[in-house]
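Q: Structure tokens for this one, please.
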Amino acid sequence: MSALLTVDRLQVGYGRGRRHRTVISDVSFEVAEGETVALVGESGSGKTTIGRAILGLTPASGGRVELDGRNLLGLRAAERRRIAADLQVIFQDPYGSLNPSLTIGEILTEPLRIQQRRGRAESQRIVDELLERVGMPASASYRYPAQFSGGQRQRIAIARAVSVAPRLIVCDEPTSALDVSTQAKVLRLLAELQQRTKVGYLFITHDLAVVREFADRVIVLRHGELVEEGPARAVCDAPQHPYTRSLVAAAPVPDPVLQRARREELARATAEEFDAPASVPVSSRDLDVVIEEQSL
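A: Here is the predicted structure, written as tokens:
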């Protein structure tokens, strides 16, 4: 299977001289057509920074990023606009990503008229089809973002992302602001769209339960470095790296017996990761802190 997106030894750093800090160090991976690759890690691991570097929102200091063989790094604004139809994004906040002063019809029509030079009548027809595809009524076209729930706004953001038939969509925590039932509906919608269009997803998240069910492959990041990768279910069910094991163990579950077992596994994985003696006890208070930090 040929690669749609190729990230090769990507590096991102901030500051100069003594204040320079590398936040992404030699990260490499690929995303194929119709494939979902998840980037996971705790807060500050660098997963969102990688997504922003691919989108051109954060400058890279080294490496290579290619979409269909086209280098994305260092593109000028005009060149970036020319590839915008192939590379789209769905942000975490479905309200902040939609212009509150425009109607939904205007929001969805804008990329069609600018990037594909569609006429007004044709654009409206496509907008009606998009709204139907994401489970929204055609009347939504005449309303404003504030008139919809968070789940409905995220559906509209998805409609905008797929309106120009992209090859790849960067999904930056697209379900973390939604309740569990709405998350399931949005993920089901993304899966249906992928099956229909063969779009590739780079899915950025901290939710391993979502990753296990939704992603094809997973890449685990820690402090800007890749520590483990593989098929999603294999990594989530039998993680090899101590850090990945601690992430899996930190995920809360409703079963108290299983939760206790996970706490014990988290203690072992944390001790192994930091080379602490296995006999050193971990207090329940310290363990709660670790679980809370890992779950962010």
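A few notes: Residues 239-296 form one domain. Residues 277-296 have pLDDT under 50 and may be disordered.
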